[in-house]
Structures are given as C-alpha cells and as structure tokens.
UniProtKB/TrEMBL annotation:
<keyword id="KW-0411">Iron-sulfur</keyword>
<keyword id="KW-0479">Metal-binding</keyword>
<dbReference type="GO" id="GO:0051539">
    <property type="term" value="F:4 iron, 4 sulfur cluster binding"/>
</dbReference>
<dbReference type="GO" id="GO:0046872">
    <property type="term" value="F:metal ion binding"/>
</dbReference>
<keyword id="KW-0408">Iron</keyword>
<keyword id="KW-0004">4Fe-4S</keyword>
<feature type="domain" description="4Fe-4S ferredoxin-type">
    <location>
        <begin position="30"/>
        <end position="59"/>
    </location>
</feature>
<dbReference type="InterPro" id="IPR050157">
    <property type="entry name" value="PSI_iron-sulfur_center"/>
</dbReference>
<dbReference type="Pfam" id="PF14697">
    <property type="entry name" value="Fer4_21"/>
</dbReference>
<feature type="domain" description="4Fe-4S ferredoxin-type">
    <location>
        <begin position="1"/>
        <end position="26"/>
    </location>
</feature>
<dbReference type="InterPro" id="IPR017896">
    <property type="entry name" value="4Fe4S_Fe-S-bd"/>
</dbReference>
<protein>
    <submittedName>
        <fullName>Ferredoxin</fullName>
    </submittedName>
</protein>
<dbReference type="InterPro" id="IPR017900">
    <property type="entry name" value="4Fe4S_Fe_S_CS"/>
</dbReference>
Length: 62
C-alpha cells in the first residue's frame, strides 16, 4: 500500500475496520504504513481518502 500525496487528515486510519493503518512514529502525521498482516484488502481506506492518496497494491486486493 502506498500513501503518496497524503495530507494527513486521518480519515483512513479511522475508517479501517481492522486498524491496519498506523502512523510512522516520529515522522509526522502524513507518514503512514499499513500492516500487511492485518489488512484484508477491503478498499475502504481508498474510498474514504479525500485526495486519492491511498493505493492498494495488486497483491493486497481481495
Ligand atoms: S484495505 Fe481495508 S483493511 Fe486494508 S488498510 Fe484499507 S481499510 Fe484497512
Ligand atoms: S485519508 Fe488520505 S489524506 Fe487522509 S490520512 Fe489517509 S491517506 Fe492521508
């Protein structure tokens, strides 16, 4: 998953049903990563992002 162009609004973190998206500690609010062991590939974070910053990798879609 990539977050290129993220504005740090936090919507994707709040939306993810399994809390897979986490801020990267000490790197500012716009730095995010998604735990691959938790992400189900539901795509809700992609839908909710106001600036279309979230991109699922092909292997993450289910
Ligand atoms: S695809 Fe679904 S499970 Fe994965 S990070 Fe986004 S909202 Fe969470
Ligand atoms: S919803 Fe988009 S802009 Fe907001 S924190 Fe997530 S990736 Fe960044």
């Amino acid at each position: 998953m990539s977050f290129d162009g993220c504005q740090g609004c936090g919507a994707c973190l709040l939306t993810c049903p399994v809390h897979a998206i986490r801020p990267v500690a000490g790197d500012g609010p716009a730095a995010l990563y998604a735990r691959p062991d938790l992400c189900t590939g539901c795509g809700e974070c992609v839908e909710v992002c106001p600036v279309d910053a979230v991109t699922l990798l092909a292997r993450e879609r289910r």
